[in-house]
Every structure is written in C-alpha cells, then in structure tokens.
Specification:
mainly alpha, three-stranded antiparallel beta sheet, 3 strands, binds zinc ion
C-alpha cells in the first residue's frame, strides 16, 4: 500500500527521473573518459613505431619543468623544419608524443610529425600518420589534402581519388584536382585498351585547365598524330617549348601554318627562312644559327607562379607549396657544347 502511495507521488517520480539523468550522465562521462584513454594509449603505441629517431632526454627534462612545454617545443621544431633539419624536428615531436597526456596536444603534434615526414620525403611514414589522424578526425580537410598528395607521390592514384571523393563530400572545391587525378589513373591503367584510354583522357582534358601538358607528353609516346592535333589547337605553346625542342623528327608539314610551333624549329635551325621568332630566346637562337659560327642551345627550368620556387625538373604539382598547375617554363639560352662535326670529307 505504502509502495503504491510512493509510486503515485509526483515528487518521487521527479526524484526517479533526476536519478536516471545523473546515472546516464555518469555513464556517458565514464565512457568518454575510457574512449579518450584508449585513444591516448593507441596514439602512444602508434608513435612508438617511429621511435628509432630516439627520445631526447634534454627535451624530456624540459617538458617536466616547463609550464607550457608543447607550444615552446613545437615552435622550435617548426624552425628546424623550415631550415630543413627534419631529424631534429622529428625527435622533438616524438618526445612530446611520448610525454604529453593531453589528447588534443597529441593530435596536433601527430599532424606536425606527419607533415615533417612528408616534407622530408618519408612518404610511407607520413601516409601511416595521416591515416591514424583521420581515424580520430575524419573531417580534417588539411590532413585529407596531405594524404591525397602523399598517395599521389607514392603513385597510388586510385587511393588519392578516394580521398578526393571524401573532400568533395566536405564541400571542398576540387574539380580540377579530380580531373587531374582521373587522367593520372587512366595514363597508368595498363588494362584499358589504348584507343579507349586515349578517348577518355582527351574527353577529361577538354574541360581541364591543368592537364594539357601531361596529355601532350602521353600522346607524344603513344599517338604522335594525336600529339600534333592537340598542340596545334593550343592558343599559347610557350609552356610546351621543352617538349617540342626535344622531339625527334618533328612533323614539319603538320606545323607549317602554325607560327608559334614553327618558331621553335626556326630557333633550332631546322626551318631556315627569314621569318623572325616572337619569343626573345628563340629569336636569339635563330639569329645565332643563321649568322654566327657559335651555336646556341636551349635549357629549361620550371618556376612556380605561386611560391616562386624554381626546379630543374618538370612537375605538375609544385614540390614546395603543393599548388597544381602553377608551374611555368623558364627558357635559358646556353652555348651548345660537345657538338660533333660529322664531315663526309
Ligand atoms: Zn609553389
């Protein structure tokens, strides 16, 4: 009877509801604490995989006595990274990962460690770290972009494409990157028949702003007629002068009506007429060929319009700033040396 009275008492019901809420809150708090502990443990175990750089005892000591050691140490490590001293930076990051118990700090340092490995060229290690970070935070756009570029450098284009799909779902505008990666996948697809592959590459390239040179290099090897057809349609061939210059047996019939392309072969001395070249370096070489006993040659460098970095090799993505399609050709006139005189006399 007493029990029924209690049951009907509104105060008792409120106490029961409050007790349930408190119990749920405690259970939730305990579960979150446990999850954080498991994450911390898992990150600690993961970092141990990279510990052959060694934990620095001096840094460990500093971490024990300093009030805000992580921010100070990451600042120092950042300077090491800027100066290219990656092993010192990595040592600092690994020591912080070993000593700090703060999950947020651990995640931030892990990202910096991944970036240091990426910049140092240890792509496999960088990849493993970026994947580990994304397990904890799959919406980290910066790490997704880095993972995509890491896959690209490792030649794992299909995996890079999967990351692009994730970025697209996060509303990132990466349409050009998507076309670029599709073309890389097609070029490296050894199963698709050549004709079908070429058709697909040209279809994607038609709407792309950054893949024309990759496609020209591909056609140069697999379909030279297709190469001439595509390059003849280009409004400005300046960035393709290196391909044209190094091409053996250019099809002069195909290009006779194209002044820009013909100029390259005027500078090389293959077309001999009195028409002046529009580009200064090409005109200089043409004049040398025509009027001087000295012969000139053309050297090539590649400059990023975004970070102004200069590279001796051709690349679509800037190795320093990661920008796509920002690389422009730089022409360099040099004296032709070691030319043999094949005299028939
Ligand atoms: Zn750059």
């Amino acid at each position: 009877m007493d029990y029924l009275v209690l049951y009907k008492d509104p105060l008792f019901s409120i106490i029961i509801i409050i007790a349930i809420i408190v119990l749920v809150a405690i259970a939730d708090y305990t579960r979150n604490k446990y999850k954080q502990k498991v994450k911390r443990q898992s990150l600690g175990d993961f970092a141990k995989n990279f510990e052959y750089y060694g934990i620095d005892d001096n840094i460990s000591g500093l971490m024990e006595i300093s009030k805000y050691p992580t921010s100070t140490l990451t600042f120092i490590a950042d300077i090491y990274v800027t100066n290219g001293n990656f092993s010192e930076a990595i040592k600092i990051y690994l020591t912080i990962l070993d000593k700090t118990q703060n999950l947020k700090d651990k995640m931030e340092v892990l990202e910096l460690l991944g970036l240091a490995y990426y910049k140092a060229g240890f792509m496999q290690r960088a990849k493993n770290i970026f994947i580990e970070i994304l397990k904890n935070n799959p919406r980290n756009v910066k790490v997704l972009s880095l993972l995509m570029q890491t896959y690209e450098i490792l030649g794992e284009y299909k995996n890079a494409f999967s990351v692009i799909s994730c970025l697209e779902e996060l509303d990132e505008n990466i349409d050009e990157v998507k076309k670029y990666m599709q073309i890389l996948i097609l070029i490296n697809d050894s199963i698709m028949p050549l004709k079908e592959r070429e058709r697909e590459i040209l279809r994607i390239n038609k709407d792309s702003k950054i893949t024309n040179k990759i496609v020209l290099n591909y056609l140069k090897t697999y379909n030279i007629q297709g190469f001439w057809d595509l390059i003849s349609k280009s409004d400005n061939i300046y960035n393709y002068i290196d391909i044209l210059w190094n091409l053996k047996n250019p099809n002069l019939d195909k290009i006779k009506n194209n002044k820009q392309i013909s100029d390259v072969y005027r500078a090389k001395g293959i077309i001999c007429d009195d028409i002046k070249c529009d580009i200064f370096e090409l005109e200089t070489l043409r004049v040398l060929h025509k009027y001087s006993s000295k012969k000139g040659n053309l050297g090539f460098k590649y400059r990023c319009s975004s970070c102004q970095g200069i590279y001796p090799f051709e690349t679509t993505r800037c190795p320093t700033c990661g920008e796509l399609g920002s690389i422009n050709l730089v022409l360099e006139i040099m004296e032709a040396k070691f030319e043999k005189n094949y005299s028939l006399l």
